[in-house]
Design goal:
Blueprint: H1 3-8, H2 12-24, H3 32-45, H4 50-61, H5 67-79, H6 150-164, E1 168-175, E2 180-181, H7 183-192, E3 202-207, E4 211-217, H8 226-239, E5 243-248, E6 252-254, H9 256-259, H10 264-274, H11 284-294, E7 303-308, H12 317-330, E8 333-338, H13 351-356, E9 362-365, H14 369-372, H15 375-378
Length: 380
């Protein structure tokens, strides 16, 4: 078949699919889930400028620093709509996975052809609203998310807790360099010393233990980004007892007790058996309502509420903004960690994010470890 006959049936969906396959020849691990997410973005947003398209696709397809140059080369062809031949073979391949013989990926049901009957592509079916409303009822094994260097995340969690505990509480503790005289201790030592104590004991206010509520999006679009955020929540639970952790997609589940396990792997094993909505659809507004209704007692004026989500949602953005406005009036600070924020060119592209901006104190990136390191300084 000639190239002309191939090009005649060459539409944008085919172009995007072949662009992803072209990247796979360089060693990038891109499968149906990543391609479906990319199509969801374009189906929802329509035509985007070059910078927005670049960062959206790069956040989906690139996982390691050495892959950036390979992505950039292929993206130039993608943006100019240069034809990708299905039989095309690159002159070189990536050496990122040298020595690797097998790569296994978890099966997923986030791509469903019945979402859009008008599409002719039954393999990679786009969701026209940018996020799935499908309710998952399957318990998934997420123990593979424990494979990460936790030392850096532990340091981030320590700095995070320390930055939240900057204000003193009402109770006092004995200290060597206190600001007030500890009268009770002074009297006790006076009795022991016959009325003449050797020194004057001092006291100062104890730092207030920070109340933190994590609400982590575990829908299908967050599969690639939930690892670091789960580790941050786990390490924070190890630093202070005043932490509550919830995961959500179409429903909300509390996993605080599971997060207090001895190891991250053990915690994820327990979560796998408890949470039945992992990698499901996304209904942020409904889940915020459920949190306020069933677990409203965890939100108070001392609470730092941390919402971890990419903002893709199938519900009404106004529902999300109304619920966030209520939570904003209840808690001390509202923080939104978004894994898609990673550059100065990023725009709050979804309607949910646009509606939520007035009620969020801090929008911060959770794209990678380096971005999470900035979190403690941002929330001060």
């Amino acid at each position: 078949m000639s190239d002309e006959s191939n090009i005649s049936g060459y539409d944008f969906e085919t172009h995007l699919t072949r662009f992803a396959r072209n990247l796979r020849t360089y060693g990038l691990m891109i499968g149906p889930t990543e391609i479906s997410d990319a199509m969801n973005i374009f189906a929802n947003q329509g035509f985007m400028d070059r910078a927005s398209a670049y960062w959206c696709l790069r956040s989906l397809f690139v996982n390691r620093f050495p892959e950036i140059n390979m992505f950039d080369q292929a993206f130039r062809r993608f943006w100019t709509f240069e034809y990708f031949d299905s039989r095309e073979v690159q002159e070189y391949k990536s050496d990122i996975f040298t020595g690797g013989k097998k790569f296994s990926r978890r099966r997923t049901e986030t791509v469903l052809p019945e979402h859009d009957p008008s599409s002719g592509n039954v393999l990679f079916q786009p969701n026209p609203v940018g996020a799935s409303s499908r309710k998952s009822e399957e318990h998934r094994d997420v123990t593979h998310l424990a494979e990460i260097n936790s030392e850096e995340v532990s340091t981030i969690a320590s700095n995070f807790v320390r930055s939240l505990a900057d204000k003193p509480g009402r109770r006092y503790q004995s200290t060597r360099h206190g600001t007030k005289i500890d009268l009770r201790r002074l009297l006790r030592e006076s009795f022991r010393a016959g009325g003449e104590p050797w020194s004057i004991p001092l006291k100062s206010r104890k730092p207030r233990l920070p109340n933190v509520v994590f609400m982590l999006d575990v829908s299908g679009s967050m599969d690639k980004h939930s690892r670091n955020l789960l580790h941050l929540a786990y390490e924070t639970c190890r630093k202070t007892s005043q932490v509550k952790v919830f995961v959500f997609s179409t429903d909300v589940s509390e996993v605080t007790r599971e997060m207090k396990s001895n190891t991250m792997a053990e915690a994820l094993t327990k979560i796998s058996g408890k949470v039945a909505h992992w990698s499901g659809g996304t209904r942020i507004g409904d889940c915020l309502t459920q949190l306020s209704t069933e677990f409203g007692f965890v939100l108070n004026r001392y609470t730092t509420f941390v919402l971890m989500s990419d903002g893709w949602d199938t519900g009404d953005p106004e529902d999300v903004s109304r619920k966030l406005s209520v939570i904003k009036r209840t808690v001390k600070k509202l923080v939104w960690l978004n894994p898609l924020i990673g550059s100065g060119d990023y725009e709050q592209a979804t309607r949910t994010l646009e509606a939520s901006v007035p009620f969020v104190d801090v929008f911060a990136s959770s794209r990678n470890i380096n971005e999470l390191k900035k979190l403690p300084t941002l929330i001060v």
